[in-house]
C-alpha cells in the first residue's frame, strides 16, 4: 500500500514509518517543519508539507494514498487549555480524513489510549471514556469507528500510558523529564497504581497489522506490560538519574495529575489472538535502564 502517515516523526510515528517501509509499503508523511521533512526523507518516505490544522492538506494526502495512519497530536501539555486544544484539533483532523475516505473501503487507523475501568483490567471490548480531561478524544474516535458503516475500514489502536524506546517516551518519560527539572523522582499517590506499557517498535507492528487486516469498526490494544507499578517506575528513574524517590501531590503534574493517579492496567489478549500480534522487545522497567542522566 501507499500509506499517508501523520505524526511520523514522534516516538510512535518514526517506528511506524520504519515498520511500513521495512514491510514493503510506501509512505507519504506529513511534515510541518524542515527538520521533520529531512528526518522523513532520510527514512525513505515521501513528504507532504503541512500540519494537522490544515484540513485541506490532510484531505489531499489521504486522496493520494491507499490507506491512512493518523498519529499527529499537539504538544502543548502544560495547561488544561492546551490539552483541550490538542484534543479538538485531533478530532477535526480525524473527521476530515474520514470524510475523504467515505465509501472507498480504504483503511484509516488512528491512535487513542487504553480505557480505565475501576477495579479491573480493561479490555478491547471496553468503551473509551467520553468525559474527563481527554473525553473529547473518546468521542472523536467513536465517531471515526462509526464510519465503518459508511465504507471506511476505520480502526483504532489503543496505546498504553507509556510507549517507550531507549528509556524515553510516554508517561514514564514525563516522570523522568520532571525528575530532571525538580531534582526529585516524584510519583503521585502511594505508587501502587499500575500503568500499562509497550515498546514503540512492538506498537509499530500492531499499527501495520491493523492497516493490513483489521476489520472495520474495531479497536485493539497495543499492550505488552499489563501494568507496572508507578513506584517501581519512579524507583528505576531515581536510580538511573541519581535522585531521591518521593511521592508528590497529583496537582504537581498539571492536567495529567488525575490521570497519573489512576490504577489503569489493560489487557491485549484479544489483539494477540485475533491479529497474531506478539510483542518481543524489552518491557518498560528493563528499557528504563537505558535512561541517561
Oligomer: single chain
The CATH class of the largest domain, by name, is Alpha Beta
Examine the coordinates and then state which fold CATH places here, giving the name of the CATH topology of the largest domain: Rossmann fold
Number of strands: 12
Tally of separate domains: 2
Strand content: 15-25%
End-to-end CA span: 41 Å
Q: Helix segment count?
A: 11
Radius of gyration: 18 Å
Series of secondary-structure elements, N-terminal to C-terminal: EHEHEHEHEHEEHEEHEEHEHHH
**Neighbour order of strands in the largest sheet:** 3-2-1-4-5-6-10
CATH homologous superfamily classification of the largest domain? NAD(P)-binding Rossmann-like Domain
- Per CATH, the architecture of the largest domain is 3-Layer(aba) Sandwich
Biggest β-sheet strands, sense, barrel: 7 strands, parallel
Helix content: 40-55%
List low-pLDDT spans.
Answer: none
Structural class: alpha/beta
Overview of this protein structure:
InterPro entries: Epimerase_deHydtase (IPR001509), NAD(P)-bd_dom_sf (IPR036291), NAD(P)-dependent_oxidoreduct (IPR051783). It holds the Pfam family Epimerase. This protein has 293 residues and is an alpha/beta fold. The protein is built from eleven helices and twelve strands. α5 links the parallel β5 and β6. The strands form three sheets. A seven-stranded parallel β-sheet has the order 3-2-1-4-5-6-10, with helices on both faces. Strands 7-9-11 form a three-stranded mixed β-sheet. Strands 8-12 form a two-stranded parallel ribbon. The protein has two domains: 190 residues, Rossmann fold (3-Layer(aba) Sandwich), CATH 3.40.50.720; 80 residues. It is globular and about 55 Å long. The model has no long low-confidence stretch (mean pLDDT 94). 41% of the residues lie in helices and 20% in strands.
Amino acid at each position: 500500500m501507499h500509506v499517508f502517515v501523520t505524526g511520523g516523526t514522534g516516538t510512535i510515528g518514526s517506528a511506524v514509518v520504519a515498520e511500513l517501509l521495512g514491510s514493503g509499503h510506501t509512505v507519504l508523511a506529513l511534515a510541518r517543519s524542515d527538520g521533520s521533512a529531512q528526518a522523513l526523507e532520510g527514512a525513505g518516505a515521501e513528504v507532504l508539507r503541512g500540519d494537522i490544522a490544515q484540513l485541506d492538506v490532510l484531505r489531499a494526502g489521504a486522496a493520494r494514498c491507499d490507506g491512512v495512519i493518523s498519529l499527529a497530536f499537539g504538544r502543548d501539555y502544560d495547561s488544561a487549555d492546551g490539552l483541550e486544544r490538542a484534543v479538538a484539533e485531533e478530532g477535526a483532523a480525524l473527521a476530515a480524513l474520514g470524510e475523504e475516505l467515505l465509501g472507498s473501503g480504504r483503511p484509516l487507523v488512528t491512535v487513542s489510549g487504553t480505557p480505565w475501568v475501576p477495579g479491573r483490567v480493561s479490555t478491547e471490548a471496553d468503551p473509551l471514556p467520553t468525559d474527563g480531561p481527554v473525553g473529547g478524544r473518546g468521542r472523536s474516535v467513536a465517531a471515526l469507528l462509526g464510519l465503518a458503516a459508511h465504507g471506511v475500514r476505520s480502526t483504532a489502536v489503543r496505546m498504553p500510558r507509556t510507549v517507550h524506546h531507549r528509556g524515553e517516551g510516554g508517561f514514564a518519560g514525563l516522570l523522568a523529564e520532571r525528575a530532571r527539572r525538580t531534582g526529585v523522582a516524584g510519583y503521585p499517590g502511594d505508587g501502587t497504581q499500575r500503568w500499562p506499557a509497550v515498546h514503540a517498535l512492538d506498537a509499530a507492528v500492531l499499527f501495520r497489522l491493523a492497516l493490513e487486516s483489521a476489520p472495520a469498526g474495531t479497536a485493539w490494544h497495543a499492550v505488552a506490560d499489563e501494568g507496572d507499578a508507578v513506584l517501581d517506575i519512579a524507583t528505576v528513574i531515581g536510580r538511573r538519574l541519581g535522585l531521591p524517590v518521593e511521592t508528590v501531590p497529583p496537582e504537581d503534574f498539571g492536567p495529567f495529575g488525575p490521570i497519573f493517579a489512576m490504577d489503569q492496567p489493560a489487557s491485549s489478549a484479544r489483539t494477540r489472538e485475533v491479529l497474531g500480534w506478539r510483542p518481543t522487545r524489552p518491557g518498560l522497567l528493563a528499557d528504563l535502564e537505558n535512561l541517561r542522566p
